[in-house]
């Protein structure tokens, strides 16, 4: 992909294909910017992914904490309902969600892309497992010292589940960054396109800009790589958390 991004599309179909970097990187970058405004769509995707990840991670953490540490009637039933939603195919939700967004006038808006999937069942269950082993005695001590529920959650409990939270941040950001079908349905204006939707426009009926696709895909992976390098320790610890007892 990196090598193809430095060649023209015609060069990629030579026999044998190029195995060394070429000199068309800047030309491809300029054409990519002129064709789809890649800088703008990159910022669109980054803004949507950051806002979605922050809100979704917060909601998942709060829901997981409630299911793990609060005792109330129907808690097991609610947990079962959350598990059941994981078995619903995404394609089944497209038509009713589209009708909901149309009914409130949110078609071609960023909130239609961000809000419908904030409550993520995987994130809720992941955070719940992180909170289950948190000692109840610490919670009682914080409450006796006069700490409110929100302060206890944000200052006492949440810092102790950073591995699970880091894993959730990476997973949520990656899912939203790579999302294609839902933004394609919701966004009609080219200036609001995300990276996957904008790159799809480079694929025509009679011509495909392969060098532009390779360069755009290469640039689109950089934020994911940076995020993983930033949270890699928490990600690995979050995946292994709870695997070994004792």
From TrEMBL:
Keywords: Cell membrane, Membrane, Transmembrane, Transmembrane helix, Transport. Residues 42-231 form the ABC transmembrane type-1 domain. Its main location: membrane. The chain crosses the membrane at residues 41-65, 77-98, 110-127, 165-185, 210-231. GO terms for biological process: transmembrane transport. It is a multi-pass membrane protein. PROSITE patterns: ABC_TM1. The keyword Membrane applies. InterPro entries: MetI-like (IPR000515), MetI-like_sf (IPR035906). It is found in: Cell membrane. One of its GO terms (cellular component) is plasma membrane. Pfam families: BPD_transp_1. Belongs to the binding-protein-dependent transport system permease family. This is Carbohydrate ABC transporter permease. It comes from Streptomyces antnestii.
